[in-house]
Amino acid sequence: MAVVRKLLLAGIAGVSMAVAAQAPAPATSTVTNGSFVMPDGERVLELSAVVAAPIDAVWAMFATTEGWTSWAAPVGRVDARVGGVIESSYDPAAALGSAATIRNEIVALVPRRLLVIRNVQAPPNAPFDAPTFQRLQTALWFESVDAANTRVTLDNAGYREGAAYDGVYRHFLAGNKWTLEQLQRRFVAGPVDWAKMLAPPKREAKPAPQPAPG
After folding, report:
1. To which H or E segment does residue 165 belong?
2. Higher confidence at residue 13 or residue 184?
3. What pTM does this model have?
4. Any bridge partners for residue 37, and if so which?
5. Whose CA, among 12, 41, 79, 80, lies 20 to 30 Å from 115?
């Protein structure tokens, strides 16, 4: 599988589907970094994790709207077909189909095996160079470890030299790690309570001043 993966990635670029969010981080991450450099100097960002769920359940987290919005974003829609789109927003008030959402087109799809996407609408005010981001694609690989566990691998290829590529790489090195950790958490803690996660932090009440002793 590793040889096939490298051959495929040599012909495509890779974009992350991960987006920043406020979420509790695991005490110890089990996400592994298998990133490498191709002979021509192209960098491949590769992260993987084992998810405690059968492959059908993990695939549904990406291939269905119900699954996607249970862990990846509070607003979303999945059209799981080649040419379809995975659309998302972390703003609960965002309207699907508007300029406020993130849209990833599905380039290739093999059910329960492979999902390849590319970004066609970057998040507003993206903290990275959007045109560079949109030159890339993401390959997500699904592999059954056993009846109760699935390995998911995120591959981003196409990274060349230059500050713009470096900025995108740094962003998605962290973002893809977060994505895999959130996917793992989905099958431990259940669906995300988006209202709770996105609520502003409560301010601690300051104690009232005490009168000076008379």
Report:
1. helix 163-189
2. 184
3. 0.82
4. 43
5. 41
